[in-house]
Amino acid sequence: MRAEFHELWHVRRPQVTQAVSEAAAQGDRSENAEYTYGKKMLREIDSRVRFLTKRLESLKVVSAPPSDPSKVYFGAWVSLEDEDGNESRYRIVGPDELDLKTQLISIDSPLARALLGKALDAEVRVQTPTGEKTWYITAIDY
Hints:
Elements: H1 2-24, H2 33-58, E1 77-82, E2 87-93, E3 104-106, H3 110-115, E4 123-128, E5 131-141
Helix pairs in contact: 1-2
């Protein structure tokens, strides 16, 4: 998020501002598509910068493992096995880091909430859109 903020504020915004300035110098702004598009891009960049600024102020980086690594907490990699013997592995991350392709699930998700505080071999039940599912914790890593 810091990298995105830096890119938007120090690279993209100055480029778009320069383009808007050049488009404005061409004369009639009411029929100048480059000017209109540039202003729209500036609004989008500023909106995203405001969001990132507020978000970065409230985030806390967790760099140390928990005091009890035998239980599931934020940042844990959790290996699960369902009732059919299918195995899966997820890491519990913040909502901004969510990426199911790389097995990163949000701490706000029903599965992550059910896993928090559980220990190895615990049974976890989660209500899914297709009904209740049960998983068993087979490994916890930090």
